[in-house]
Amino acid sequence: MDETTELFRAVGSKELESIRASGNSAFPPRLPEQHIFYPVLNEDYAIQMARDWNAEGAPGGVGYVTRFRVRTEYLKKYPVQTVGSADHQEYWIPADDLEEFNHNIVGPIEVIREYRRND
């Protein structure tokens, strides 16, 4: 069996709709101005983004944390990027590679947390 790596991603409502439309098996293509897809390596970092950026700072006022597994062998071609603190680690997947990335997801993309704007 393939070894997998657990990853996380903070998403908003529209991205979650697209994930669900795929049967929870793929992330949607990036918008033209989005050149990189950023899955993160730890849940706390994804929580921070879903809560602080998606729920509080984005239109719609809701953020979700997704969890999924990707074939480790596939990820080896992308170095882990540390942005800010050591807890802020992510992969930078070029938008043109997202379809191949999606083919290397093993199992479903799960929503594990939800955050709503504190009005």
Outline the low-pLDDT stretches.
none
Our count of helices gives 4
What level of helicity do the residues show?
25-40%
> What is the overall silhouette?
globular
- The fraction of residues assigned to DSSP E strands is 25-35%
Write down the CATH class: Alpha Beta
Identify the CATH architecture: Alpha-Beta Barrel
User: How many strands?
Assistant: 7
Number of domains: 1
The largest beta-sheet arranges its strands as 1-3-7
Radius of gyration over all CA atoms, rounded? 14 Å
Mean pLDDT: 93
- What would you call the quaternary organization? single chain
Q: What would the CATH topology be?
A: ADP-ribosylation fold
Largest sheet descriptor: 3 strands, antiparallel
Distance between the termini: 47 Å
SS-based class:
alpha+beta
Order of helices and strands: EHEHEHEEEHE
